[in-house]
Amino acid sequence: MRLVRVLILAPFSTTSLTRLGQRVQVIVESWLDTNRLQDPEQLGARLALEQFDVVIVEADFIFAEVFEAAPRLRLVGVCRNALHQVDLPAASARGVPVVHAPGRNTAAVAEMTLALMLALARRIPQASAMVLGGGWRDPAQGYRMFRGREIAGATVGVVGFGQIGRAVARRCVALGARVLVHDPFVPPRQVAALGGAVATLERLAARSDFVTLHLPDIDATRHLVDTAFLARLRRGAYLINTGGGGCVDPDALAEALAERRIAGAALDVFEGQPLPASSPLCSAPNVILTPHIGGATAETVERHSRMMTAEVERLLDGRPLRHVANPEYRNVRAG
Predict the structure, then answer these.
(1) Which pTM was predicted?
(2) pLDDT tens-digit map of 229-281
(3) What secondary structure letter does DSSP report for 8?
(4) CB–CB of 27/12 below 8 Å?
(5) Phi/psi at 217 (nearest 5 deg)?
(6) CA nearest to 333, candidates 312, 313, 318
(7) How far apart are the first and last CA of the chain?
(8) CA distance linking residue 80 with residue 164, whole number of Å
(9) Which pick of 71, 162, 279, 320 has the fewest CB atoms within 10 Å?
């Protein structure tokens, strides 16, 4: 019997590769190593020509043409929670299950959010730059220039209460913060169970010392943080976004920072990535900008590698898949 062939276009742990290699043929070409994304048409042709049964991606797109060109495909794995890069209806129409990795980077992004909050509150980048630049001459200078504030006793507004928003809320409560939550799709009892309180978006903006965004990039959330939202924030408030880059209007935020209407902002995601040097955010004061590294931890890779490996093993054993995003594929298989 022909050995199952698996193409992995994502970073993958050595332990999981060894485990997979005991049962299937594995080809690994992580997009982080090749520094390129596959053309969908060329990818489909390759999957067919080289007789791959499974393809696992993190950043590559799996469009309808991939499924049309590769009729042998038995499984698509996505090393993310989000599924916008896969044509799920096309996969279902071909009877191909698509599995994903919910929760793979929850801890990583939650910790990144806290790191950004602390960096803003304690002005860590500015303090480090002063020392590295040779500007620390007076022993008391740091006390005068960089007196910050604590998260303990502060009010943190969490907008979006999915897995990451909840993880952030738990950590903030543990640090002694009051947590306000806005998410119209989450029952108040779930918020209360984690020590938070439900608030309207307007009340959250007006009452919070830190506002952290954990929203998807969809039409309904685009530029949620606009001039009007920023006007509701306290002058001493900080804004953090590790969710959807399109949720923040960069021009409005840059203007609010320049006019000192808020104390600072930290963004790990942007409307267009990479962020161009011409962005008004790059010259705004009291802003921390990081290159979308919220989920960039070794543990995240280990986690999604284990999840994808387990799904391939379930496929081989004929067991039900655990993280299927398109359960309707079974109707085609059954027919």
Answers:
(1) 0.94
(2) 999 999 999 999 999 999 999 999 999 999 999 999 999 999 989 999 999 99
(3) E
(4) no
(5) -85, 90
(6) 318
(7) 25
(8) 13
(9) 320
